[in-house]
Amino acid sequence: MYEKTFPNKRFKHTLEFLQKHIKTSETIFDLGVPNPFSKIMEANGYSVKNNTGEDLDTDQTALQEEKYAVFTAFEIFEHLVNPYTVLENVSCDKLLISIPLRLWFSPAYRSKTDMWDRHYHEFEDWQLDWLLKKTGWKIIDSVKFTHPVKKIGFRPFLRLITPRYYMVYAEKIK
C-alpha cells in the first residue's frame, strides 16, 4: 500500500520497525491527529487511537485517560516545545518514536504560513536518547536512515548519504 505514496521510504522503514517490535494485538496511541501513517498502521492490522489536536505542550489528558499498550510519535517531537512532559505522562510500557535529525547543512524547518508546522527541536540522536533516559525509558533498538530527494545538487547529494531520521523502540524502566 505504501509503495506508491510519498514519502514511501520513510513509511516503509517505519512500518518495518513497528512490525519488528509491536504485535497487531497491541493497541497503539499515535501522538497527533489521524494522518497518512496512522492509516497505514490500520491497513496493516493495528488498532490505532489518535489525539484530537489539543496543544500537547500544555495538555496531556489524552495520554493519561486513554487505554493503550504502545505509544508512538512519528515526526511529532520536533514540533513540541516540551517533549519531556509528554514522555512523563505516557501511561504504557512500550514506545516507538521517530524524529528528523538536525542537519548541519540545512536550517530548521519553519513554515511561513502555518504556525504549527515548524520544528522547535531538531535533535541529534544523543539528545533523544538522553530525553528518554531522563523520563524513565530504556532504548531496546534504534535505527537511522536517509531521505534522498529527487533533485540534483550538493544538498541533495548530502541528503543521499546523511541520515535524516532516527527511530527508537524503548520500554519503561520499572
From TrEMBL:
SUPFAM superfamilies: S-adenosyl-L-methionine-dependent methyltransferases (SSF53335). It comes from the Bacteria. GO terms for molecular function: methyltransferase activity. Keywords: Methyltransferase, Transferase. One of its GO terms (biological process) is methylation. Gene3D superfamilies: Vaccinia Virus protein VP39 (3.40.50.150). This is Methyltransferase. It comes from Flavobacterium cellulosilyticum.
